[in-house]
Predict the 3D structure of the following.
Amino acid sequence: MSFDRRDFLKSAGAIGALAAAGCAPGPSTTPARTLGTGLARGLTLLSFRDGTLDRLGAKTAKGILDVARAAELLRLYAPSTLDDLLQQEDGPSVQAVVEAALTTPAAAPAFRPEEGLVYGPLVRRPDKIVCVGLNYRRHAEEVGAAIPAHPVLFNKFNASLNTHRGTVTLPVDLATQFDYEVELVIVIGRTAKRVSEAEALSHVAGYATGNDFTARDLQNGRGGQWMVGKALDGFAPIGPYLVTADQVDPDNLTIECRVNGETRQSSSTSDFIFGTRQMVSYISQYFTLKPGDLIFTGTPAGVIQGMAPERRQWLKPGDAVACSVQGLGELAFTLT
Ligand code: ZN
């Protein structure tokens, strides 16, 4: 970081006056604004690729704001990636930069059109990716499983992460039964260790659309552990956006998945067996959840595995999958 905290606070205090004057930053006598650490609010964030680097973007009425570039132009500090924002718990800096950029002409070069953007996975280095299985009533029924008494947990790895408009490479020499699972993804924003259900959602930074992509023959045929069918490279597409938690009612969202344009899953998170509060609280009893961690919350009915055996046509190279969760944007990817 090129600015220390004191400079940052000074600059942040000055920015209101600068914005009003519409001029480049300079010395100001405006009192410093007090910014603490905390979660971002009111923002739709994304990660986009610039060469080999990911950069933090904010979706605005003026286009996608390159947050680090805007901070540079405005002489403010902001984390340059979504991983950094989450792990530094520095929502307020990003909000200050976005607000200033929208009203300060000097920041104009930091906006770019969303069209043509290459997306990164929202995060690249979460401490953990925890997944909940069999968490929708109708899905548990369709695959012939009992309604679980406790959340069923498994995991993916960071190498499983994939992007909006990305490609999932199917290891066709190892498996044949490839299946989709649209899911609401919880992104943790504050450390959660043994938190109660009542306080659970205050530890959430935001939500995203995800797909718990699965090889069923590996999930069900490798000794009782699901991991090998779930955690393959690229089997966790997520994005395009992280919508901050203050804007989302996570237990009442429509959720859909389409394959080659045909609707396969269409449900609501209100069909959850364990709601978002219960999931975050339950998982935090066993594993300390850290900022940037992801929780895949289970998939609704409509997966290929749930169809009668003679109707199952597993996914294959060339198929296009589109997933959406209400208000969180459409996650599209193709298979090769
Ligand atoms: Zn799943």
Summary: The first strand starts at residue 44 and ends at 50. Confidence is low (pLDDT under 50) at residues 1-34. Residues 240 and 329 are 6 Å apart (CA to CA).
